[in-house]
Design goal:
Elements: H1 16-34, E1 43-52, E2 56-64, E3 70-78, H2 86-106, E4 114-120, E5 123-129, E6 133-135, H3 136-139, H4 142-151, H5 154-163, E7 165-166, E8 173-174, H6 176-195, E9 198-199, E10 208-211, E11 216-218, E12 225-226, H7 243-246, H8 253-269, H9 280-288, H10 294-297, H11 300-303, H12 306-316, H13 327-332, H14 337-346, H15 353-362
Antiparallel strand pairs: 1-2, 2-3, 3-5, 4-5, 6-10, 7-8, 9-12, 10-11
């Protein structure tokens, strides 16, 4: 049924031109209410390069709205350069768009929000939430450690060094309580997409962001796959791919857990777990031997904790059947990540990790 609206918007001192404009606005409003769709062109300005990868380039831009409204967004521009022809590009972009539209509906705090998927003269662009923060690859550097040491007040630096972030063997590392907090946020995000039959497929430090609020977010779902329709190109980083993926097997929720396990080991150890591997063969061997050399890789405050070592081993197990059953079990199940936090609480060693991270990250501007 069509609705009827009555407006009294013409004050007594208006001019005929004002009356005409008011009626035009009323007509436009009525047509908008009666229509079945809306369309307009969004404009993005001040594009700033954020990063590049195998799929294309990511920019920070500002989307302009009416009356001076602007919103910072991330724009992932998918490159057609590596496709054999435009048709192959179009087919793969249709797959990416289908997965992106499903991820957009999940709306989980630990997943990147997807706003839109558009085409500009045939080139596809994913419009996403811009995350104000740092990815783990940026944070796990000597530059971040030195900036923390020089920019924080001495008392705050001592606290950060004792509780949050400290020197490791070849790069800085997170202290166990903070590393597990980041892990738990990522597990919650993974559980959300896995429940929808989607796997991320390319978890690595560069794809985990720490917001300035202290919350971790999984980003870059351009490589995500629908388990029910996994055809199409596969993009993943060998150093963080599960052994079965490296051997040509399918990307599964269990493979995501292994990738996240490698990220956890790196956060705890202060060194990439496979930094000495130079070839795919060496990388494959290193992954199969990681469980055996885990305790020598981890620092004493980690290797001496049976629960932490167990958690790492269950995530990185070479055999997928020996990993946690799913992301939720890895977080909340027996001897999962939550159990370690409970252990810290019982020992009066726990901290308000979100707040600690927020206060620290605010100083890294």
């Amino acid at each position: 049924m069509k609705s009827t609206y009555t407006f009294n918007i013409v004050p007594s001192d208006t001019t005929p031109a004002d009356v005409g404009r008011g009626l035009t606005l009323l007509t436009a409003y009525q047509l908008l209410l009666e229509g079945q769709s809306l369309s307009w062109v969004s404009r993005y300005r001040d594009l700033h390069h954020l990063g590049s990868g195998g799929q294309g380039i990511v920019f920070l831009g500002h989307r302009e709205g009416a009356d001076g409204f602007t919103l910072p967004v991330a724009l992932k521009v998918f490159s057609p350069e590596s496709y054999r022809d435009p048709e192959a590009y179009d087919q793969d972009m249709a797959r990416v768009a289908a997965v992106a539209s499903r991820v957009a509906l999940i709306q989980h705090d630990n997943l990147l929000d997807v706003h839109d998927f558009v085409a500009h003269e045939g080139v596809r662009v994913m419009v996403m939430e811009w995350v104000d923060g740092f990815d783990l690859r940026q944070l796990l550097t000597d530059a971040t450690l030195e900036k923390s040491r020089t920019s924080l007040e001495p008392a705050h630096w001592r606290y950060v060094n004792d509780v949050i972030f400290t020197a490791g063997r070849t790069q800085p590392r997170f202290k166990p309580g903070v590393a597990i907090q980041i892990l738990r946020d990522c597990l919650a995000g993974l559980a959300a997409i896995h429940r929808e039959g989607i796997v991320h497929g390319d978890l690595k430090p560069a794809n985990v962001m720490l917001k300035r609020t202290g919350t971790a977010k999984i980003i870059d779902i351009g490589s995500a796959l629908d388990l029910a329709n996994a055809a199409g190109r596969r993009m993943w980083s060998p150093a963080y791919a599960a052994p079965e993926v490296l051997d040509g097997g399918p990307v599964t929720p269990s493979a995501d857990l292994a990738s996240l396990g490698y990220v956890l080991v790196e956060m705890l150890a202060g060194r990439p777990p496979f930094e000495e591997a130079k070839t795919i063969a060496e990388l494959r061997d290193a992954k199969h031997g990681l469980e055996q050399r885990l305790t020598e890789l981890l620092p004493d405050d980690v290797s001496g904790n049976e629960l932490l070592v167990y958690l790492c081993r269950r995530l990185i197990a070479t055999d997928p059947a020996r990993r946690f059953a799913d992301a939720q079990s890895a977080d909340l199940g027996r001897k999962g990540a939550a159990a370690f936090h409970r252990q810290l609480i019982k020992g009066n060693l726990a901290s308000e990790y979100d707040n600690d991270l927020r206060v620290w990250l605010e100083q890294l501007k």
